[in-house]
Predict the structure.
Amino acid sequence: MTIDILVNNAGFGHSGKYHENPAEQEFALLQVNVVALAQLTRLLLPGMVTRGWGRVLNVASTAAFQPGPHMAGYFASKAYVLSLSESLAYELKDTGVSVTVLCPGPTQTEFTERAGIKESLLFRLSAQSAEKVAEIGYQAMLKGEAVVIPGLHNWVIPGLHNWALAQSMRFVPRGVARAVASWLVK
Ligand SMILES: NC(=O)c1ccc[n+]([C@@H]2O[C@H](COP(=O)([O-])OP(=O)(O)OC[C@H]3O[C@@H](n4cnc5c(N)ncnc54)[C@H](OP(=O)(O)O)[C@@H]3O)[C@@H](O)[C@H]2O)c1
């Protein structure tokens, strides 16, 4: 069977202090968010490169851009997805194969209930529709863009703050980034 398009979307998060969360929950998160994504990507890329065409869409999060106290394992898992995807995008230049990493901010799905953060400030401020985020990711994947943060593409939709938050992390001290992320998640 030939697979030319891989979308690594499966993922989940949970809130709470890392040392108090059930260990099996933390390891299951790593398995789904990191290990499965890494395995599928490594498995399918060689065939795509040999055939000279392929598209990989990895779903990270704006959580990938800073540490996230109270969702530590989740934020760390998404940092892995962002870093791996960007490196692969560069390595694969001129092969016909692209790797795109989609970094959504709060999005209206079942994620918040599973993660136990439905009432967090982050989600109460604004959440984009899943359809809009999926469309932006899909189009970016077809074009072979490396990194896409929904909210940058259209200045009037709620979501511009996703881009602004992600970019601002480059300029603020790490201690401030940790504190802001903790405040938003709680
Ligand atoms: N919603 C947000 O605010 C948000 C923001 C940034 C990034 N994301 C990312 O977007 C992606 C999709 O999440 P979502 O928001 O659509 O949440 P969702 O509605 O909870 O959907 C999660 C998806 O992941 C699958 N999944 C979860 N655990 C799994 C497991 N152990 N094995 C196999 N599949 C599993 C689920 O499959 P089943 O339904 O079969 O369990 C479902 O298809 C995730 O990677 C998430 O981290 C979400």
In short: The chain has seven helices and six strands. Residues 55 and 98 are 5 Å apart (CA to CA). The pocket of NAP is lined by residues 9-13, 32, 59, 61, 104, 106-107, 109-111, 114 (CB under 6 Å). Helices lie at 23-51, 72-91, 111-115, 121-125, 130-143, 160-168, 174-185.
